[in-house]
Predict the 3D structure of the following.
Amino acid sequence: MATLKNLSGRFGSAATGLLAATAGLALAARQRRFGPARLRARQLDLHAKQLELEELALRRKSLAHQQRMHWELLTRAIDDPSLAEVIDTYDKDIPLERRRQFFYANAWYVYLYHVHRAGLLDREELYAALREFFQSPVFREYWEASRHMRASLSETSEEARMGHMVDGLVQDLDEADTDEWWVVGTPPSD
């Protein structure tokens, strides 16, 4: 009897071992079939993410270049009234010196817009900076004088949405019953 138990125990262990080996071979075969496909899918995902990051970096570099060009062109217009006439769409009843100040105010506004778009200022920080700029009567006058320029923007553009936010800020500042301008309005959140 002891020999029979011992013998069946050996066969049971052998059968279990054979079953485990077969399962291991099946798992290995499955991994060989699906492993490269998963690896390839993962590589494609990583490549797509890398391309997105490269595209974002290129876009930021292009925006920085565009901002530099905008500043250079505006500086030339500010320095030379004959060049300013090329882009001057302000009311001609506004004195030349004031229109030059408007070009400078526009440069600051565009600067803040691009700093926000580059992710260096969130909407709340942008709002706070603009709230401070609108303490200047010249900046307020520039904003009103450039209303017709903003009216031509597509309503769905980011620039138009920012213009509407600023219009709301200006209205809040005008209607405020406090001298504490730094608390006026409700800054938007991102």
About this structure: The chain has a mean pLDDT of 82. Residues 90 and 99 are 7 Å apart (CA to CA). Residues 2-79 form the longest helix (78 residues). Helices lie at 2-79, 81-87, 96-117, 123-133, 137-145, 147-151, 158-175.
